[in-house]
Design brief:
Blueprint (H helix, E strand, L loop, with lengths): L1 H32 L2 H21 L3 H12 L9 H22 L1 H6 L15 H20 L4 H23 L5 H10 L2 H13 L14 H35 L2 H14 L4 H19 L3 H28 L1 H5 L10 H16 L2 H7 L7 H23 L1 H27 L6 H19 L7 H22 L4 H20 L1
Helix pairs in contact: 1-7, 1-12, 2-4, 2-6, 2-10, 2-11, 3-4, 3-6, 3-10, 3-12, 4-6, 6-9, 7-8, 7-9, 10-11, 10-17, 11-15, 12-13, 13-15, 13-19, 13-20, 15-18, 16-18, 17-18, 19-20
Length: about 500
């Protein structure tokens, strides 16, 4: 876990810095400058753009994880693997851009009644979708080279700082809302260009078609694998996008604005997990290549344990202070409290079993994952269709949590059956028990102090002491203890150097 800890810690720091900027944008400036429906419109455009990107990538993300270790050869420029990926994605961009234009009338029909404002900004989805799919390809390629920092900085920090700039311009009334929407969509090209320049700097931007030296037989294998992983990728996209699309259809842009803002606030829960997964996923492919099941099981357990501890800690800190956190939002956002709760539960489950995806998608039994993905897509759609009309945006959150729970448990059981791999350790269940007790303690101490800031500090301290205290005293999760110790040492060394 040395490489994982080092890179994950750095990317976590960058991601949290980006989260702070993002909170300034979405938690403060968006709410102060834009109406709830305008916020909903912006996030709807982002969601559809993200869906476009996932459709247009044609499964290249998992294909890169699986096959790049076999292509790695600096002298031969990795056999032109990057050019090969960009060729596939270029075809995806052309196909889905054409479909998006040709089927405009049918797509708009679903938003005409509840979200008519979207019709005026229909084409601003394309700059986001095209920029993001190119970013995805370059980012996963860099991850396979074990270079994670620049991509995280470009997307988490630079893009959000650029968003802050145009928000300030809108606040000063130097630009109209129409121009703001256009500029916001065009900003997504910035992280992509940063990765292009970085790849050129490290002499890894090999995009000449003549550099492609992949045997035809292997190309067929890549295409075959990509076709399956492509459908699997859509499962995660539907979970992240279908909620927003269906809320815009059934509830309207105001509900979309509340839901997407709360979703952003919950994203802080997954920052450490995404940083760990970003570094761990390429290692899984290497372990498959060398058939090193012992190392894979060790990584599987450690990643799940660390993610569980960090995820539970973040959940507890947020939930016992939920009234404090929502006190800074507009009153209409209070209906998002239970969205916050159920989405965080779903994300906790996803974090705990999250390495399932990397193991499943890079194994020889990757074809079977399509069964679970199709179930996820159908389950999210059906549950949303039933629950959103009954419970509004909270219904979407409940349906997502249920779908993620069943989906992850199903994958877990299959991996255990096929490869005798699972992430469980006795101490994990002790930690879950501790978290339940801490949650009850936090609820019992609500409202003891009149000053909300002092109450916030008291509740946060209570969670940290009661949750991390037993973990540290009884060494229930050694990787987390090592991670925190190294993080503190890193900070002390930086402060000492300065």
């Amino acid at each position: 876990m040395g490489l994982v800890q080092k890179d994950a810690f750095r990317t976590t720091l960058i991601s949290y810095f980006g989260i702070l900027i993002g909170y300034l944008n979405k938690g403060v400036l968006f709410l102060a400058i834009l109406s709830t429906s305008q916020i909903g419109l912006i996030n709807l455009i982002i969601s559809i753009g993200t869906l476009f990107a996932q459709l247009a990538n044609f499964g290249t993300v998992y294909a890169t994880w699986k096959f790049f270790p076999f292509m790695r050869n600096e002298a031969k420029k990795h056999h032109g693997f990057l050019a090969f990926l960009l060729l596939i994605v270029g075809a995806g961009i052309l196909i889905y851009s054409a479909l998006y234009i040709l089927f405009r009338e049918q797509i708009e029909r679903g938003y005409m009644e509840k979200s008519p404002m979207f019709l005026d900004y229909y084409y601003w989805v394309l700059p986001i979708g095209i920029s993001y799919v190119l970013f995805m390809v370059l980012e996963v390629y860099l991850r396979s080279l074990y270079k994670n920092i620049v991509a995280v900085f470009a997307y988490e920090v630079v893009l959000r700082l650029a968003t802050t700039v145009i928000l300030v311009l809108k606040w000063l009334n130097w630009i109209s809302f129409e121009l703001f929407v256009g500029l916001h969509s065009l900003l997504y090209i910035i992280p992509t260009m940063i990765l292009v320049l970085y790849l050129k700097r490290i002499n890894e931007f090999n995009v000449r078609l003549s550099s492609i030296q992949i045997p035809k037989r292997l190309k067929r294998v890549v295409f075959y694998f990509s076709s399956f992983s492509y459908i699997n990728t859509l499962g995660a996209v539907w979970v992240n996008s279908l909620d927003v699309l269906m809320i815009a259809q059934f509830v309207g842009l105001d509900g979309t604005g509340v839901f997407t803002t709360v979703i952003f606030l919950t994203s802080v829960l997954q920052v450490p997990y995404r940083s760990i997964l970003r570094v761990s996923a390429p290692l899984v492919s290497d372990y498959w290549k060398h058939r090193n099941f012992d190392k894979m099981k060790e990584l599987y357990t450690k990643v799940s344990s660390v993610s569980l501890v960090i995820g539970l800690a973040m959940f507890l800190l947020c939930w016992v202070n939920i009234d404090f956190l929502f006190s800074f939002l507009k009153p209409e956002f209070r209906e998002g409290i239970w969205v916050f709760f159920f989405i965080m539960i779903g994300k906790l489950v996803d974090m705990y079993f999250g390495l399932n995806g990397a193991i499943f998608s890079t194994s020889k039994k990757y074809r079977y994952d399509i069964i679970f993905t199709m179930f996820l897509i159908v389950a999210v759609y059906v549950l949303n269709y039933l629950m959103i009309p009954m419970w509004g945006i909270a219904g979407a959150a409940i349906s997502t949590s249920i779908a993620l729970l069943v989906y992850n448990v199903g994958r877990l059981l299959f991996i255990w059956y096929a490869y005798k791999l699972h992430p469980f350790h006795r101490n994990q269940f002790i930690i879950i028990g501790i978290s339940v007790l801490v949650l009850f303690a936090g609820q019992l101490t609500q409202g003891l102090i009149n000053n909300k800031w002092i109450q916030f500090l008291f509740e946060s301290t209570l969670v940290v002491v009661l949750f991390f205290g037993p973990i540290y005293l009884f060494s229930l999760e050694k990787e987390t203890i090592n991670y925190i110790t190294k993080a503190l040492a890193f900070v002390r060394s930086k402060l000492g150097r300065n």
